[in-house]
Amino acid sequence: MRFHTLHTDIAPPPRFTYPMCYEPHPLCLMAADEVQRHIAQASEWREEAGHGKMFGVLVAAAPDGTLGYLAAYSGQLGGRNDWPFFVPAVFDILCPGGHFKTREAEITDINHRIAQLEAGADRAGAAERLDHLRRKCEAEEAGYRLCMAEAKRRRDELRAGGADEESLRRQSQHMKAELRRMKKRHAALMAEAAGDVAEACREAEELKARRRQMSDELQAWIFSQFRMLNALGQQRDLNDIFAAETGGAPPSGAGECCAPKLLQYAYSHALRPLCMAEFWWGESPRAEVRRHLNYYPACRGKCLPILKHMLQGLDVDPDPLEGDDGGRLQTIYEDGHIAVVDKPAGMLSVPGRTGRRSVADVLRMKWGDGAEPLVAHRLDMDTSGLLVVAKSPGDLRLLQRQFEGRSVKKRYIALVDAPHISPPEGRISLPLRPDPLDRPRQVVDRQQGREAVTYYRVMAERDGRVRLELHPLTGRTHQLRVHCAHPDGLNAPIVGDALYGQRAERLCLHAESIEFCHPATGQAMSFRSEAPF
Questions:
Q1: Which of 99-103, 262-266, 378-382 shows the highest mean pLDDT?
Q2: Those residues with Cβ within 8 angstroms of residue 390's Cβ, 6 or more apart along the chain or in another chain
Q3: Residue 388, helix vs strand vs coil
Q4: Segment 156-180, tens digit of pLDDT
Q5: In whole angstroms, what is the distance from residue 108 CA to residue 405 CA?
Q6: Which of 215, 334, 308, 286 is closest to 447 using CA atoms?
């Protein structure tokens, strides 16, 4: 049974969930609770799910008006796409005897042949002979150079004794010519031996090229089989969707997340989608921050282009990020070179892709006369607090040098979801990089990430939450949010952090104070704001 009836008096929402930013509807919470009980009882794959898996629910109405829900998991579970409680994959690449499995077996055979060739006696023998010949030639040339040096010493002695100069010069020229002939012979021998190595590698390289071609063709074929529906009855495959939305190919795993699976099944079975939510079950990945039973938006890299197509024909909630700009911007200092403003939570620092107002927009209107406010550093849209703005490119450069040199002192206040933080003060160093498939989310990457360092100190502990002061030494995107939430950091997400913790009325992170030198006068400047939480 894929459509599970809900027995409740809770009224459905007037519009469908905006999947990239939402508060789960009570019907979704009810459905998710049933799914979580099912997961807890599923002995076949419960342990695997406990290592971390995204699940989703979609509440829908059947043609006869019956209210129920669908459930899904992202990717595969227990090596299967077809567990009966959940909706199936949009396209089951694991179907035995299908095109994917057949081509996959052919690629596997090529992999085995490449491994045999690369470890084979012919290739190893040819490489060993080339290495032996190289060392032999180098030794022979080195020995002959020593002979040449000794001959030169004797010639110098003969010259000092009055020997015939012409005879000595001919001897020198003969030995130099012999060295050139020796090098030429060695080069020919080395070329022949290198040719043997290349011949031994040729088949492996040809097979690698064939493998790349087959893999690319198979991936494109898979995406062509994901034919996604929308509420208007229109159908487009993933290759077409991503070419139109991003100008490129779909990323690996596109179409296998919860949201596309749920909508596809609903449309295919004449169910009317009402609301949707996705939650994480189990352990957090090492790089990302995911918390057991927390709700998360659909990912932007894989899902957003698909959902833009699939939601057509539905009455969908508006994107809350395109709504209210967060409140009034306060200027707490201004002169002919800079301004220091107190940004409300919900306002962008600089113009973004939506129509939402930014600090730069507000100041441009306020200053007039073609003024161009230049924001010297950034605060996340959901972070409130002090922001320094330059009035000229020269002032901006001087301010940015201070940020780059780490001479600017910044102090943030945060409220985190934890009853206690131990030790009460310390240093966090977790390197960060963007998640290319789910921007602006950041992940911890100890190989490719950029250094990010934060100092923290506990200010107070009350009502199961801790108030912290945070001092970022570096200025990476979402640095404080990840350092607080990540298990290798404080393991205590900031209250209201929808990306790394749980949504609340606001993100409780405030840039409380900043110290820097005035770009024109060099005077030390210090500003402070009161935290609004």
A1: 262-266
A2: 337, 338, 373, 374, 375, 376, 396, 399, 519
A3: strand
A4: 888 888 888 888 888 889 999 999 9
A5: 52
A6: 286
Residue 33 has pLDDT above 80, yes or no: yes
- In the block, tokens 């495959």 appear at 237
- What is the model's pLDDT at position 430? 97
Flag the least confident range among 91-100, 298-307, 433-442: 91-100
Q: Are 317 and 277 in contact (CB under 8 A)?
A: no
Q: Residue 235: enclosing H or E segment and its boundaries?
A: strand 235-237
φ, ψ (nearest 5 deg) of residue 383: -95, 135
Residues contacting residue 473 through CB under 8 Å, at least 6 positions apart: 406, 453, 454, 455
For residue 88, which amino acid is it? P
Residue 487 and residue 498 in contact, taking contact as beta carbons nearer than 8 Å: no
The amino acid that residue 401 corresponds to is R
Between CA 276 and CA 285, with CA 282 as vertex, the angle to 5 degrees is 100
Report percent pLDDT > 90 for the chain.
75
pLDDT at 73: 98
- 139's CB contacts (< 8 A; 6+ apart) are none
What pLDDT was estimated at residue 325?
Answer: 61
Active site residue 240: no
Two tokens, residue 257: 């997340």
Task: Please tell me which residue in 317, 380, 382, 438 is annotated as part of the active site.
Answer: 380
Relative to beta strand 272-281, strand 53-61 is: antiparallel
Q: Which residues pair with 338 in a beta bridge?
A: 390
Tokens of 182: 């020796």
* Ramachandran angles phi, psi of 82, nearest 5°: -130, 35
Q: Which pLDDT belongs to residue 204?
A: 82
Does the pLDDT at position 97 exceed 80?
no
What gap in Å lies between CA 471 and CA 413, rounded to an integer?
Answer: 9
Residue type, 227: R
